[in-house]
């Protein structure tokens, strides 16, 4: 019907909406407390908590498990125990409740809640749990009695359990402090496979409500599998260590001490401070290790590369001190003792390679006067003295009657140059390793 002006008449529409609201109110008025209580009594009459909620007991019950991780409270790589807080959602379909609800006459009630102690629950547990096996954990008896299962009119049931659990994990600290650990939360059922079939719907247990961990980056993978005897759902929580703190406070100080330790051979032997400098750095390294030993992984499963690195650095520092002692011993050894011919050849070869000798000869000490030792000659050459000394030395070398002679101080100087080359090479390699390690961390952090 339309008015004279051609506009639609909205009065009948308002009347229809009013009638619909009245019918809605009258339809829901019966879903009161008494009706809900009567519905509970009707549904629970001769209800068995032991038998599966199927009219055909040979049919399996599909139980859907979803885990929502709240936070990882603690994870210890040595013991392999992860403590976490999570919510476990358990869903299934109850044919008994659905059939009785449909015949109860309370079709206006869509959802009801029944105490969990009065209905059938799937018997499930966590296989690798560290403390208790059941997922149904409660703070007290009152909390247990007030827990309920939510049923829909279609028979769908849902139960949510909140708990703080501890599970055992297989740890691998090979790449510490860049180690990655996978902690499985494997939910299985005690019942036979034909009775209960575990499933899952989500592929991730980490969501927007998961709290970040200050030490670990949390990711996850969810899988479900069925076997001949039982079925299981595995929630794999992957923990990747955040390495910035450990690199800054462990790796970098050790590398600095190692680099400075190699500078011990650049301290002049004549100063008398070389040995005290080297031993002080060694003691500093040992004291530093005692302060950080608590944070190093001490598991016997695998030995981390970082532990091997620390062991190598400790031996390197000890070898540096040992080299300092050897060079000082040879430097101050009596010149009356003869140097073996093999050691003479090695000494002359090293000094030639370092361009210490002014000419291609097989002797050093004969170039000096009786009151001048070979060290003075080398220093004069290294400092670029005038040509007169070099010409006099050349004339002395050309004298066929002069026999080559190398004393222990020359051996000490040659050995000192070898140690300088080794420590310099080691320092350069260490710097390249640290730069590559830093780039790797930056790429991994951004990724």
TrEMBL record:
<dbReference type="InterPro" id="IPR006202">
    <property type="entry name" value="Neur_chan_lig-bd"/>
</dbReference>
<feature type="transmembrane region" description="Helical">
    <location>
        <begin position="305"/>
        <end position="331"/>
    </location>
</feature>
<feature type="transmembrane region" description="Helical">
    <location>
        <begin position="418"/>
        <end position="441"/>
    </location>
</feature>
<dbReference type="InterPro" id="IPR036734">
    <property type="entry name" value="Neur_chan_lig-bd_sf"/>
</dbReference>
<dbReference type="InterPro" id="IPR006201">
    <property type="entry name" value="Neur_channel"/>
</dbReference>
<dbReference type="GO" id="GO:0016020">
    <property type="term" value="C:membrane"/>
</dbReference>
<dbReference type="InterPro" id="IPR006029">
    <property type="entry name" value="Neurotrans-gated_channel_TM"/>
</dbReference>
<keyword id="KW-1133">Transmembrane helix</keyword>
<dbReference type="InterPro" id="IPR038050">
    <property type="entry name" value="Neuro_actylchol_rec"/>
</dbReference>
<keyword id="KW-0732">Signal</keyword>
<feature type="signal peptide">
    <location>
        <begin position="1"/>
        <end position="27"/>
    </location>
</feature>
<keyword id="KW-0812">Transmembrane</keyword>
<dbReference type="Pfam" id="PF02932">
    <property type="entry name" value="Neur_chan_memb"/>
</dbReference>
<feature type="domain" description="Neurotransmitter-gated ion-channel ligand-binding">
    <location>
        <begin position="38"/>
        <end position="243"/>
    </location>
</feature>
<feature type="transmembrane region" description="Helical">
    <location>
        <begin position="275"/>
        <end position="293"/>
    </location>
</feature>
<dbReference type="Pfam" id="PF02931">
    <property type="entry name" value="Neur_chan_LBD"/>
</dbReference>
<protein>
    <submittedName>
        <fullName>Uncharacterized protein</fullName>
    </submittedName>
</protein>
<keyword id="KW-0472">Membrane</keyword>
<dbReference type="GO" id="GO:0004888">
    <property type="term" value="F:transmembrane signaling receptor activity"/>
</dbReference>
<dbReference type="GO" id="GO:0005230">
    <property type="term" value="F:extracellular ligand-gated monoatomic ion channel activity"/>
</dbReference>
<feature type="transmembrane region" description="Helical">
    <location>
        <begin position="244"/>
        <end position="263"/>
    </location>
</feature>
<feature type="domain" description="Neurotransmitter-gated ion-channel transmembrane">
    <location>
        <begin position="251"/>
        <end position="397"/>
    </location>
</feature>
<dbReference type="InterPro" id="IPR036719">
    <property type="entry name" value="Neuro-gated_channel_TM_sf"/>
</dbReference>
């Amino acid at each position: 019907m339309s008015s004279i002006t051609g506009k639609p008449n909205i009065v009948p529409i308002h009347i229809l909406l009013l009638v619909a609201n009245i019918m809605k109110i009258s339809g829901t008025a019966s879903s009161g407390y008494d009706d809900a209580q009567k519905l509970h009594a009707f549904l629970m009459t001769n209800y068995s908590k032991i038998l599966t909620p199927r009219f055909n007991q040979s049919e399996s019950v599909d139980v859907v498990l979803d885990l929502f991780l709240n936070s990882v409270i603690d994870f210890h790589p040595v013991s392999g125990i992860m403590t976490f807080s999570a919510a476990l959602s358990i869903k299934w379909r109850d044919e008994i409740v659905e059939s009785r609800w449909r015949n109860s006459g309370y079709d206006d009630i869509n959802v009801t809640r029944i105490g969990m102690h009065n209905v059938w629950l799937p018997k499930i547990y966590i296989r690798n749990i560290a403390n208790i096996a059941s997922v149904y954990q409660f703070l007290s008896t009152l909390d247990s009695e007030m827990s309920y299962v939510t049923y829909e009119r279609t028979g769908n049931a849902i139960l949510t359990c909140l708990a703080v659990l501890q599970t055992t994990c297989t740890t691998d600290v090979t790449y510490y402090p860049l180690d990655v650990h996978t902690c499985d939360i494997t939910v299985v059922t005690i019942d036979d496979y034909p009775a209960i079939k575990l499933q899952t719907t989500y592929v991730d247990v980490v969501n927007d409500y998961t709290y970040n961990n200050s030490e670990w980056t949390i990711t996850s993978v969810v899988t479900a599998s069925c076997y001949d005897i039982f079925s299981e759902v595995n929630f794999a929580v992957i923990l990747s260590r955040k390495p910035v703190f450990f690199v800054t406070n462990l790796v970098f100080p050790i590398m600095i001490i190692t680099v400075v330790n190699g500078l011990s051979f650049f301290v002049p032997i004549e100063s008398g401070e070389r040995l005290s400098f080297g031993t002080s750095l060694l003691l500093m390294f040992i004291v530093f290790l005692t302060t950080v030993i608590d944070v190093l992984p001490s598991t016997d499963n695998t030995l981390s590369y970082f532990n091997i690195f620390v062991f190598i650095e400790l031996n390197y520092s000890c070898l540096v001190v040992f080299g300092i002692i050897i060079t000082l011993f040879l430097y101050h050894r009596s010149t009356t003792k003869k140097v073996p011919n093999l050691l003479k050849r090695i000494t002359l070869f090293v000094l030639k390679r370092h361009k210490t000798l002014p000419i291609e000869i097989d002797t050093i000490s004969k170039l000096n006067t009786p009151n001048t030792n070979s060290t003075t000659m080398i220093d004069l050459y290294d400092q670029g003295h005038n040509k007169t000394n070099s010409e006099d030395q050349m004339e002395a070398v050309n004298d066929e009657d002069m026999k080559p002679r190398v004393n222990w101080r020359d051996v000490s100087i040659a050995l000192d140059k070898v140690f300088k080359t080794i420590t310099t090479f080691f320092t350069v390699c260490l710097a390249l390793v640290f730069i590559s390690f830093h780039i790797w961390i930056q790429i991994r952090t951004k990724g």
